[in-house]
Amino acid sequence: MTNVAGHLREQNGMYQMILSWKDTNGKRRTKSISTGLPVKGNKKRAESLLRKTQKEFNPETMQQVSDLPVSEYLNRWLRESVMNLPPETYGRYAYDLGRVVVPYFEKKRLSLKALSPRDLETFFRYERQQEEASVQQLLDWHKELTDALQYAVDNNWLKVSPIKEVDPCLDNSPVLFTDFITDWLKMMKSRVEITTYAGYTSSITKRIIPYFKQFNYTLQDLEQHPKYIQDFYQHELDRGLSANTVIHYHANIRKCLQYAFQIGMIRSNPADRVERPRKEKFKSEVYSAEELERLFTAIQGDPAEFAVIMAAFYGLRRSEIVGLKWDAIDFENKKISIQHTVVGVKIDGVMTDVARDRTKTKSSCRTLPLIPACEQMLKKMKKEQELNRKVCGKDYCTDYLDYIYVNPMGMRFHPDYLTQHFPNFLVSHNMKRIRFHDLRHSCASLLYANGVSLKEIQEWLGHSDISTTSNIYTHLDFSSKVSSANAIVSIFPENTKV
Predict the structure, then answer these.
(1) How far is residue 108 from each of residues 96, 115, 130, 131, 421, measured CA to CA in Å?
(2) b/e burial code for range 193-204 (CB count within 10 A of at least 16 → b)
(3) CA-CA distance, 330 to 46, in Å (whole number)?
(4) How do the domains of the chain map onto residue ranges?
(5) Which of 111, 150, 388, 491 is the most exposed place for a label (fewest CB within 10 A)?
(6) CATH domain 289-480 topology
(7) Cα 201 to Cα 187: distance, rounded to the nearest angstrom
(8) Average pLDDT score over residue span 11-26
């Protein structure tokens, strides 16, 4: 057997194996093989792979690999790549190749060296049209074949990879925009937060798809005529939707079409060539101190009492209120920690509560002082929950024992309950109509009116950026502006007061 020498070298931050041997004529031959391993932290692993390769490497059979059927070569590549791939990646590759790619090429009996771009295009076309593969599946198979064929190039079994110029999604037949955005939405489910996915789903399935489906626009139609997208925006504005809602639709459409552009299905993103509506300036309704005092009196004994007080005094979001747990209350040190949230989302038509041990942003995770009035209220609620549990016995729900805001049967309140119940309560008590979230704005307004700095308000509310605090709340207190005007006027001789 030929004696094969070898050593490692670094190239572009990766380890390469350099093999050396003498052929039958006594001429020195060398071959470089990529390990697929980054230099940092992988020296021992690379050395182990080098020793294994030296032992198994047979120069006499090297050229014979290119004569293998594509199906056999793919199986061989997978076996030889097991050490270089993360377990989850190897498992996905093995599943895809064994289930789809290898069986297809087994029928073709095509050799590795005879594999052409046209053969690969035929494979992807077959999967698109006959098997109705999704865009994501096509891209996954393209990535796996790219890695496998590049391995053949690295080992000199192929001069160039035939998949290099192959677009798995390109087809002469046009692709309906509604079909593409449906596939894109399915792909995003595993790539974004579940709450983000729920937002995408609501906009796309309820508004975007129903509108575009009636016209049967293709991706190419939208690329050639961006006005079709503009027409949709105008249609929604004419229906009475706010500009901010249409901007949200625009973000969904643009993100989807950007993906189509990235994978080569269109040559440009038409959403970049339309005018999105101008964002509406935020304007909230707030309660004055007097209105809040009246609200606190009226809400006593109502299921929303706790939520209203926490929103108005602490400026908590509904997700933060519903997510409050007993371990967040430090009675000894008089502190309350905001660190857990519960968000209601609709996923595949089913309303679901998503509980997370984190807040909307890092800044939203905050610790606030526990004032005596809130401390007394919480202690009273704890006693009531313990009593309700005894009275209800086995009928009491034990799934939410660690949560503060539960009903008499132990069930955790849904975030949507506050959104729906609170306006109805105001109407029934003949009070000014505001949203539940406006209690948070009322809190900020009162803080600002009483001389609390924007920086302090930012920390109290848990805003990540002080500009958010400034943009939303600085317009709320007119009296402070009057004071500022009087201070300026005082320098004039007339000393006229506003």
Answers:
(1) 18, 10, 17, 17, 65
(2) eebebbbbbebb
(3) 53
(4) 1-57, 177-273, 289-480
(5) 491
(6) hpI Integrase; Chain A (1.10.443)
(7) 12
(8) 79
**Does the structure show a pLDDT above 60 at 2?**
yes
Lookup: tokens for 81: 């790549």
Q: 362: buried, middle or exposed (CB in 10 Å: 19+, 13-18, 0-12)?
A: exposed
| The predicted structure's pLDDT at residue 73 | 92
Tokens standing for residue 20:
């050396």
* Edge-to-edge strands, sheet with 5-11: 5-11, 14-22, 28-38
Class of the CATH-defined domain 177-273: mainly alpha
- Asked whether the predicted pLDDT for residue 415 surpasses 60, the reply is yes
Are the beta carbons of 337 and 427 closer than 8 angstroms? Answer: no
Is the whole model's pTM more than 0.70, yes or no? no
Helices (H), 155-176: none
What is the per-residue pLDDT for 32? Answer: 74
Burial class (CB in 10 A: 0-12, 13-18, 19+), 421: middle
Q: State the Cα–Cα distance between residues 47 and 8, nearest whole angstrom.
A: 8
Q: Tell me whether strands 341-347 and 5-11 are parallel, antiparallel or unpaired.
A: unpaired
* pLDDT value at residue 429: 95
* Strands ordered across the beta sheet of 335-338: 329-330, 335-338, 366-369
